[in-house]
Amino acid sequence: VLIITDSYGNMRSGFPRYYTRQDPGTTQYLNSGANAIEAIRGGQGGYMLFGYVENPNSDNTGFQKDAFVVKVGTSGDELWQRTYGTDEDEVILHATQRIVAGYMLAGYQVEDGKSDLMFFGIEEEVDSIPLGLLYNNPYAENSAANYVLNHGDHYLCVCTYDKINEPGTDILVLNITETLEAAPEYLSGDFSEFGMCVIEEGPNSFLVLGNRLSVSGRMEMVLYLIETSGDRIVRSTQLETISQSNTDLIGRRIVKTNDGRYAIVGSRSVYGAASDIFLQFLTSDYAVTGNVMFGSGGAQTGADIDIADDGGIVVLGTNASDANSMISLIKTSDTGDF
């Protein structure tokens, strides 16, 4: 689904728009979902949507998830669509513009019930380039490439990666060249950690947001600083963990505010109750400060965050109740106030 609003959050005429494929053997439309969107640059306008579609498998005994890309115009009209996949499940979780024309896509592939990292590129007009990276781990169970950042002459890909020879997962950051040569850096240690996203902090330095299963069995946010030199990650430092008693905190995205502070969006759940959208602030030197919660009935989750033209904060989320769900769009001041 694609929704475009005005600056006050009012939906524009003609939206929402839905995109999927029709089952070639029936008149039914297939299940699909978009996990990432990129605005098309270079004066063309429009958007690229990235996610998955559930296609019938080769022997028509069920369905498999294939990577799904849709190009739409500024008014939401579909221009073309393309699927990429094998007999296994492939899902795109995030995408970015390539260093040259086209897009780099990050996600996961499931084989024999086990999920592993997937990273590949497409040309500007949908052709898959002869570049693909499956960062094979013989111990993979729940691995996924969750976020990819183009930083000029390399890509940084933040992943959740199964530990070697022991249970749990680590945060893995891959520094990837245009030819998909990858230099790895493992950020976590004794705890199970899950990579979420990365933003540029300064020249050759980046902030990596993740989540950690603490010794108490609760989820907490964790923030790392990594430094790069060429195609190598040369240093990583844990800056902060963010937790609350008897509470699960899950961070999804982080953004730098116009005055140099940081805001993390995610979810907060106390004693396993329904979650609220959670907005956590940090100072310019990464000290944890105030937070704001947005909630009502149902389970609410913050999914993404950005800075508006006036310096305020825009939060995208979801609200699920029973069998229904809604998209939440919240605009606040730079301190999280309405």
Tell me how many strands there are: 23
Unreliable runs, pLDDT <50, ≥5 residues? none
- Choose one word for the global shape: globular
Q: What's the order of the H and E elements?
A: EEEEEEEEEEEEEEEEEEEEEEE
Task: Summarize the amount of helix as a percent range.
Answer: under 10%
* Terminal CA distance: 27 Å
Strand proportion = over 45%
What does the radius of gyration come to? 20 Å
Structural class comes to mainly beta
Count of DSSP H/I helices: 0
Determine the mean pLDDT. Answer: 90
Query: Largest sheet, order of strands side by side?
Result: 1-2-3-4
Largest sheet: 4 strands, antiparallel
What does this entry look like structurally?
This protein is mainly beta and 338 residues long. The chain has strands spanning 32-39, 47-56, 63-72, 78-84, 89-97, 103-111, 114-122, 128-133, 144-150, 155-162, 169-176, 182-186, 192-202, 205-213, 219-229, 232-242, 247-256, 262-270, 276-282, 288-294, 299-307, 313-321, 324-332. The strands form six sheets. A four-stranded antiparallel β-sheet has the order 1-2-3-4, with no helix packed on it. Strands 5-6-7-8 form a four-stranded antiparallel β-sheet, with no helix packed on it. The radius of gyration is 20 Å and the shape is globular. The relative contact order is 0.07.
